[in-house]
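User: structure tokens for this one?
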Amino acid sequence: MSSLIRTFSERGDLAHLALLLWASGSSALLLLTLREHFKANARFDAFVRELARFNRRIKK
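Assistant:
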């Protein structure tokens, strides 16, 4: 990693390096957020299914 940083700093592309780091960090956070969102949706779906099953048992 240090050779990559050295290459960028020697060529004067520090702005590009900063942009690359920001973009990869943002993308990683987006992926983590989406994964947690999908997990929350699955838990809510399971809750609604159980609630519907409970309601069917009560009505009989």
